[in-house]
Amino acid sequence: MTTVExxxxxxxxxxxxxxxxxxxxxxxxxxxxxxxxxxxxxxxFVAYTTWAIFVNRDYYVGAAAHRDLISPFYSPCIxxxxxxxxxxxxxxxxWWHITPALIVLAGPLPFRLTCYYYRRAYYRSFWLSxxxxxxxxxxxxxxxxxxxxxxxxxxxRYFFYLAAIFNVILTIDAVVAFRLPxxxxxxxxxxxxxxxxNAASLWLYSLSCHAARHLCGGQLRSFSKSxxxxxxxxxxxxxxxRHMQIAxxxxxxxxxxxxxxxxxxxxxxxxxxxx
Amino acid sequence: xxxETQRYDVVxxxxxxxxxxxxxxxxxxxxxxxxxxxxLLGKAHTVMAExxxxxxxxxxxxxxxxxxxFRDTMRGGKMLNNxxxxxxxxxxxxxxxxxxxxxxxxxxxxxxxxxxxxDFGGHRYARLAxxxxxxxxxxxxxxxxxxxxxxxxxxMECKILRLLTDGDGQIAGAVxxxxxxxxxxxxxxxxxxxxxxxxxxxxxxxxxxxxxxxDGHAMALxxxxxxxxxxxxxxxxxxxxxPLSVRGLLVTEGVRGDGGVLRNAEGKRFMFDYxxxxxxxxxxxxxxxxxxxxxDHAGARRPPDLLPRDEVARAINAEVxxxxxxxxxxxxxxxxxxxxxxxxxxxxxxxYHQFMELAGVDITKEPMEVGPTCHYFMGGVRVDPDTAAxxxxxxxxxxxxxxxxxxxNRLGGNSLSDLLVFGRRAGAGASDYAEGRSQVGTVDRAxxxxxxEEAMAPFARSSGENPYALHSDLQxxxxxxxxxxxxxxxxxTAIEQLDVLRDRASRVAVDGPRRYNPxxxxxxxxxxxxxxxxxxxxxARERKESRGGHTRDDYPTADPQLGKVNFVLSQPGxxxxxxxxxxxxxxxxxMPADLRALLEESH
Amino acid sequence: MDVTMRVWRGDETGGEFRDxxxxxxxxxxxxxxxxxxxxxxxxxxACRWNCKAGKCGSCSAEINGKPxxxxxxxxxxxxxxPVTVAPMRTFPIIRDLVTDVSFNFEMAKLVPxxxxxxxxxxxxxxxxxxxxxxxxxxxxxxxxxxxxVCHVIRDHEENKQYYxxxxxxxRYAELEMHPLDTNDRRELVRQKMxxxxxxxxxxxxxxxxxxxxxTDNAIIPLKERAVDAAYDPIAWLGRKILRRHKRxxxxxxxxxx
Lengths: 275, 603, 257
Fold this sequence. Notes:
Oligomer: heterotrimer
Mean pLDDT of chain B: 94
Low-confidence stretches of chain C: none
Order of helices and strands of chain C: EEHEEEEEHHHHHHHHHH
Mean pLDDT of chain C: 91
Helix content of chain C: 25-40%
Number of helices of chain B: 17
């Protein structure tokens, strides 16, 4: 694999004297506000998620609470240790003993980690490379995404496929949340809506992703030769333009969905039935 | 004094559309080619062209043909055009456009995948190949990329001061300096192509950039070539008028081609009152007919807003003079009330952006304020139509610096096609000349040293004239006395003032280093600006009639006798930019009967 | 009312900010003020400009620390206080506000050119939908502010040898999306032009005066194309088995093997 080390240098002049003062930045506006907000929100999310994953309880609202709700962090719950009702029946992992949420994380987490938007967010806010435009990089050496481990960012599309499987499962969870356990029939509660919004925002996040836009049609040289894929591309491109907003929205929604299920499951309050 | 010397078969001066096309042609013939430009590559004034490239490709209207394009061009130029140039231009323009496409240009498309063509003033059919309102940028980028891929040596930010001829009057080379270092450089060449563009920077309100100082016009004159039609300066009818700092900035004719109309302060579409006899038969006489034309060219006549530029500019001038102008001294150009915001943003993105950013005006909601702005030199170096050769053996000229093609007024869209057609012909002409020449001419080192010394002289003066002040005074003179409407007495005054400015220019002093010194750079541009300004004033004084881009208050009508002559300028006194300039009328070339017949057909 | 301009004056031997105070005029842009400075207080103040209409991309500078076109930055849109004007940081200084931008022209020379097939009898046919992506990139006015702001070379001079920069990435993207082009430049861009150096922090998009979505519409699609070409395990396996490299002659030459 070619890396920066073995690539042949381009014959350009380097090492010329630069103009302007030797200052990290000349910006006087509050450029650090954006990265600071990113850090705050992401740290809060990671802290909450870590706790929610390892607490390993209150993630399922079963028939006892007359509603089938499962936290998105714990679905699909395929470990033997899962609480009854949350567990699938046709595929059960018996050798896994710590929190089931950890294995669930294996799909969506790398998808978000390699997401083109989140990369921008954490390279700027955490890695400070650069913290903001025209503000100096905090690192002396820089090799971008050409080396291990960052070269793995190129696997984004495979994590997109993987995350899509989880989206299907969470969609099934949302559909199941319409079911009224015990007596049967269909109804809607706040919990149902929470899971539906959660599934929808995760689909929006996946479909607005740059890999999806490329795979559905962006990779074509000539759109007119493949009208169907062009139409798909036209459909996804406006979503893609809002990928950043959707990324934040879906991140917060998924945490809130977990929180909601957790609160109902712990008995803090009753999931209100709407109709 | 040792001086950096570059040896080439063909040296092209100017890297706008014409220069690039000429260099590509010369290089494709295998000649060692240099392209010299005052700015960075790709920044030439061609990028400012917005509307499109006129070429009778018949993609939108089957009825179009080179004959109709020829006829439109001749009528637009009030029959003063060099017929052969107009003919070659109309015939070859389509091939030049297809060529750009093959080099990677992405023109807007028709539904069946061909190059889309748009309407423009003075063109009978929708004829302009375009890319939104940034056609010039597309053209220069395409040519630039082609030139880079063809291995042409580009000398950027290099100002050429003078051309050199050898003992028997053949071109031998050119002397200039590098702007980044201020060091002189000598080009020795078998043939030289001038493609330096216009000289609009001598006017105060102009759409031209700082580069348009008439270097090529002046250098050709000094080297012994002739200039023709210098009195014809096109004032584009629609330049921005407010804020003051952007006054003169171009508003594309495409606004009117896409449905915009001109209104005075009373909201009236005044252009209906200014239709000259010559255009009455083919111009709509009611707003209803004019509006219908946009969708039905066959069933309706064209709106008067799309008359040739000289007509529209004069009309706007008259409205403002009559007190019916807009608050800042222009008229209103209204597309907001006539087209949807989406349409406007899609068709005219850079106009939208320009007004939004610079004037705080949303053109999808409000009308624009516009007024005439100095835009284009119809006149220029007299050339042979087929080879672009000038009177100086080995010197060629193409593009705005060459004269004759556009007569007394240029149609919008004809300049980009002019650049391509005659850029290529100049490149070919120069290549033929260079191939036929075994040796480069000898350069007189004393002459070179004298030119360099003269250029450096402002540094030697401890005190003297400020070049910026001098430039500003020149602009004031040309704007107020040699503007859109002229009179004999004002032209006399202008020439007297130009004498004074010439004296002052010989006393210019600058300070600081030679390296990228804008005051000095301007000082070295002044001789050409003053020479060209003088040429315009002299020729304007001689042409005692109103025709095309030249309007005389004291001779308000066209004189049929003067319609048969070009005024030719020469500097027989030889070297030195202060030598006297001679003006002489010469009959225009006789047009063959078959072409004459085309003009006489009603449509 | 007066404005204070804090302008960088100097060359490769060093320099400093110098303050100039002059009266404010209505509707002016930064370039107008610089021009008035030249005409009155600082005749030799070097600055590059051409069209003064945001169409040529000559007057790029760092205004209050941010890359902007001087001709499109209204004075009344800037915050109160002195206006700092400095040259582009990434390129070697020539003098004052003028820098040596030849890096960009050198990189442009390395692009394998557009290579269409010979036209059919009716000429080339392309639909509007086929060229609209390329048209966005061709709005580029080569102001080189994206190159200037890109930290890959702004903060790491040594990377210039391995990095074409956003301006050239949109050029590669345009060619890769051109319906008629027959060259394949994906491996060249990945291996030699430093596509992987870009960490999509989007500053190029932020500063683009033409509002080209450089990152979303050019660089990321290029990265995805590089994945198609280089990191797709199935394609990789196929190449290993068949020992075939799908590469155009121009690219093979440019990659150098």
